[in-house]
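Encode chain A's predicted structure.
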Amino acid sequence: MLFIFLLFGCTLAYYSPSKICLGGLFEDTEIEKEKVFRYSVQRLNEHNLAAGLPMNVYTSAVKTVPRYDSFKVSKAVCELLSEGVAGVFGPQSPDTTDHVQSVCDTKEIPHVEQRWDIRQRRGSCLINLYPHPSSIAKALADLVTAFKWGSFTVIFDQSEGLVKLKDLLSYYDHRGFPVTVRQLDEGNNYRETLRRIKNVNEKNIVLDCAADKLPDVLLQAMQVGLLGSDYNYIITDMEFEWSIQVIR
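Encoded structure for chain A:
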């Protein structure tokens, strides 16, 4: 996030008034992300001072928004724009971010996303911090090749996640490079699917699921004997943050 702030800062420093406000939309559960946002604004000011850039002062304006209420989110972004923000960060929820992007596109204000978005498109004011889906797919395919996996199993929870795995799935070959695809069970119990994978003696696994599910999936994988020194995992989620104590 700091990189994006520096990018904004270096661009706006020469063309904007001396005081620049950056807006942020965060859900009430995103306390840490809000702290990072405010800290990044502070670091941007410190960086510009140390670099001898024109002394623009950057401030932050933050609104707490509900996850699924598009009306309140739209109202919040309009309030930020009325305060003269130079750009809007967030929110994370795919249920409301389209409304924010629509308003920002209309006003030609940069909108920064921090999440996986399969619908990235050119011609909008959107800046997405995640790599393009095709880039992620290529990177995953390169990893499998580098590890010299002769076979592997893909575990996923949502069908849209298969887009980022499309290059991996293209490796499927009846002549000797088998790829198995399994979807996680609905609910919170994934043991049946994990046991099936263990029973066929698969050692190489690509796991694609939401970050909040990962601790439970890996804990249950350990419980059924699918997690240990004999097993190799590639975890695709780029927001994978949790303590190793969860599976100890």
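The chain is about 40% helix and 20% strand.
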